[in-house]
Specification:
Layout: H1 9-24, H2 26-31, E1 33-36, E2 38-40, E3 47-54, E4 57-64, H3 67-74, E5 87-89, E6 97-100, E7 105-108, E8 112-114, H4 115-118, E9 125-129, E10 136-140, H5 157-168, E11 173-175, H6 206-211, H7 233-253, H8 257-269, H9 271-286, H10 297-300, H11 304-313, H12 315-340, E12 345-350, H13 359-363, E13 378-382, E14 392-397, H14 401-406, H15 410-422, E15 425-428, E16 436-441, E17 451-454, H16 457-468, E18 473-475, H17 483-491, E19 496-499, E20 522-525, H18 534-539, H19 546-553, H20 562-572, E21 577-581, H21 582-586, H22 615-627
Parallel strand pairs: 10-11, 10-21, 11-12, 12-15, 15-18, 19-20, 20-21
Antiparallel strand pairs: 1-3, 2-5, 3-4, 4-9, 5-8, 6-7, 6-9, 13-14, 13-16, 16-17
């Protein structure tokens, strides 16, 4: 590009990249401190350098001055100028790890930047400085579990307050559950969604809508619901539907020129999934909430004329559905930027299988095990084991991997790309199915008569590396796994998971989940959303291991200290990351359990109460982070 610098392409490229950096780090450029930087050496008067610093993030800009004059004096091209001993000097408190945001290179420095190195490839440098310590820690807490006055946690003020708590307690990761739409028929499970790419409208913040001028004159107080420590899904749905309808009417009739253009851009960019999602939602409503495979054949088979007529008849409803998704995306991006500016990475979760009644299966039946009439032919699950004599049938169609491979995995590329846009890191749930998976013929009432079939394996991840670049994924490698799964995980250097609640029992010394057997590239947990809280586990499932646990930690234990002893075991391990469910930080008992697998009711409801996250919790996390070098 530098060789063709006179055709203006480099100017467009530079402008785009600089605007993108500014957009992605809005707080830094709006609130960051301006720091003039000292330049020393033979050409100290020929380099302009300054830094912008906000919280833990720094940007350094270095620009050569009078380069034409120096080039003539030395009789060389600009990129061959000998800058001699010229250096940019950074403050001692600046992080030593740098990334060149224009050249995509990285490295470390000793608080001096050589002009010769800075301008060797391009006569301009934009460096991002952030301290890098591989060891880190984080908290598992879903958005729905935040306090809020609207019956469910959302992307509003409390999400930012929690991000501030994470920042003050030196946490690097905020782990979440899937953000996709949920419904009552699936028990409000975020792992059984009607769309793999749409966002959950219940997470939209009314306060942020008001801040954006979309609720003028609307008093939100009448919409407040009691904060009981549990999500009230039905009332939250009612409240959010009413508020979003008012915001939509304001948007339609108001002067929102910038917002309107952003919405149009969103619809164009996301059309590959958004158009079908809007049609699916309208059809589901028109048919009383029935699943797509129960619709009339014209819609079930996606006849183009029928869909065109539907679009013409319901254009405003379709536009509103898309607009709600636009608002969700806008609020989510703001929260992600807010977290990233505070050194917090958002750690998402992606289910492997897709619900049978979903827009994905309706609009892409050829990549799923469904026949021409829409009936499932192969069902996902797991075989019988020590926990279940019948195994588990999940009611979701398996993938047709031969068809997907022939299409260059296009649906999966889009899905993974969307998740990478949403999160900094993504957990791949049921990772073992990428190696091999259990398929049960449709019509079976148990999972006994299934077969193991090969998954896409290394070919899939090799292709994704080519399409997506680096793979910011974590392998959920829990349960019954084999060498194929372990090899696939390790061949692509994906971190695995270690759960302390699985560590104790007859084979404890050799158990893969006991901390003395951990390796570096793992994430240590006290438990996950599918486990009891540590205190609940200690009272219930772990009761028989009390003496063994005490022997392992070398001290007597009670309910008052069990949860923080287990937390310290995770922090002290060699695993590069330690994640604690927020319930375990606060010592909450079994009432704080998020999900009990196999139970159809009473899940996904736990919430924090206002003020429940205390300074004491912040201080203990800060202390552990320092003590175990996870800052």
């Amino acid at each position: 590009m530098w060789q063709n610098r006179y055709d203006a392409r480099i100017k467009l490229w530079l402008t785009r990249n600089l605007l993108l950096e500014r957009k992605n780090n809005a707080d830094l450029f709006a609130k960051g401190k301006y720091i003039p930087l000292e330049v020393t050496g033979a050409y100290q008067d020929h380099v302009l350098a300054f830094a912008r610093q906000h919280l833990r993030t720094w940007y350094v800009v270095a620009v050569p001055l009078h380069v034409a004059q120096i080039s003539r004096e030395q009789e060389v091209e600009i990129l061959h100028i000998d800058w001699k001993d010229t250096k940019v000097v950074l403050p001692k408190e600046a992080p030593a790890d740098w990334q060149n945001m224009l050249l995509r290179t990285s490295g470390k420095y000793a608080h001096e930047l050589s002009a010769q190195d800075l301008f060797a490839t391009l006569p301009l440098a934009l460096l991002k400085l952030q301290a890098v310590n591989e060891r880190g820690a984080g908290i598992l807490l879903h958005i729905t579990s935040l306090p809020s006055p609207f019956g469910i946690g959302d992307l509003g003020p409390e999400a930012r307050h929690f991000a501030n708590f994470l920042h003050r307690s030196r946490q690097k990761y905020w782990q979440l559950l899937p953000l996709n739409p949920i419904e009552q028929g699936q028990g409000y499970s975020p792992y059984s969604s009607i769309s793999s790419r749409a966002g959950n409208p219940l997470l939209i913040s009314p306060e942020l809508l008001a801040k954006d001028g979309l609720l003028p004159g609307v008093d939100l107080h009448p919409y407040y619901l009691p904060q009981t420590g549990s999500v009230d899904y039905q009332q939250a749905q009612r409240v959010k539907d009413e508020i979003l309808e008012q915001a939509w009417q304001t948007y339609k009739t108001g002067e929102f020129i910038t917002l309107q253009q952003q919405f149009l851009d969103f619809c164009l960019t996301e059309a590959a999934w958004l158009d079908d999602f809007a049609l699916y939602m309208v059809l589901k409503s028109e048919h009383g909430g029935a699943a797509w495979f129960q619709w009339p054949d014209t819609f079930k088979q996606r006849e183009l004329t029928a869909l065109a007529d539907l679009t013409a008849q319901h254009q405003e409803t379709l536009d509103k559905i898309k607009w709600v998704q636009f608002i969700f995306a806008k609020q989510w991006k703001r929260l992600r930027t807010y977290c990233n500016n505070r050194g917090i990475q958002l750690f998402g979760d992606m289910p492997f299988y897709i619900s049978y009644d979903s827009v994905d299966v309706w609009s892409n039946p050829e990549i799923f095990a469904v026949d021409e009439t829409g009936n499932m032919t192969g069902v996902a699950g797991v075989p019988p084991d020590s926990f279940s004599d019948d195994g588990q049938l999940w009611g979701m169609p398996v993938f047709r991997w031969d068809e997907l491979k022939a299409r260059d995995y296009d649906w999966w590329v889009g899905r993974l790309r969307k998740n990478i846009e949403l999160y900094d890191i993504v957990r791949l749930d049921h990772f073992r199915a990428f190696a091999d998976y259990w398929e049960v013929p449709a019509g079976e009432t148990t999972a006994k008569k299934g077969t193991w079939n090969p998954g896409p394996g290394a070919d899939f991840f090799t292709f994704m590396e080519k399409e997506l670049g680096s793979l910011p994924f974590v392998a959920e490698d829990l349960g019954e796994i084999n060498d194929l799964v372990l090899k696939l995980r390790d061949d692509f250097n994906l971190p695995g998971m270690k759960i302390l609640q699985f560590a104790f029992g007859d084979e404890m010394p050799q158990n893969d989940y006991i901390p003395h057997n951990y390796a570096r590239n793992f994430i240590a947990y006290t438990g996950t959303h599918d486990n009891n809280t540590v205190l609940g586990w200690y009272r219930q499932e772990g009761h028989k291991y009390h003496k063994q646990i005490e022997h392992y930690v070398g001290r007597d234990l009670t309910e008052d200290d069990m949860y923080w002893v287990m937390s310290r075991l995770a922090y002290a391990s060699v695993a590069k990351t330690a994640i604690l469910p927020m319930q375990d930080v606060l010592g909450i008992d079994e009432k704080g359990r998020m999900n009990t697998p196999g139970e159809g009711h009473g899940n996904w409801g736990w919430r924090l109460l206002p003020g429940q996250v205390t300074p004491a919790a912040e201080n203990i996390l800060k202390e552990w982070t320092h003590l175990y070098n996870r800052g």
